[in-house]
Amino acid sequence: MGIRLPTALSHAKMMLRRSFLIANQTASAVALVVPKGHLAVYVGEAHQKKRFVVPISYLNHPSFQDLLSQAEEDFGFDHPMGALTIPCKEDAFLHLTSYLNSL
């Protein structure tokens, strides 16, 4: 009774592929999770957008509402990234969010 290498090798490759696919799907699902009380936004201009998760309490702040108005003017209700897209520079957004965190 010998071990058939082609079959064993094929089976090992299939197992490796499955574990790789499961790991990738799990990593993708974890990356897309938004905690309760938060929302995901994409920030940036042109093709360089970065995803941020911010507390929904930001929605009440007038400065953040200005960004939302700008997003509405640029995109309406059709956001190409699948989430709210805010068309401003990342530095400006980070400055605003750090200010809002300090309140």
From TrEMBL:
<dbReference type="GO" id="GO:0009733">
    <property type="term" value="P:response to auxin"/>
</dbReference>
<dbReference type="InterPro" id="IPR003676">
    <property type="entry name" value="SAUR_fam"/>
</dbReference>
<comment type="similarity">
    <text>Belongs to the ARG7 family.</text>
</comment>
<dbReference type="Pfam" id="PF02519">
    <property type="entry name" value="Auxin_inducible"/>
</dbReference>
<protein>
    <recommendedName>
        <fullName>Auxin-responsive protein SAUR21-like</fullName>
    </recommendedName>
</protein>
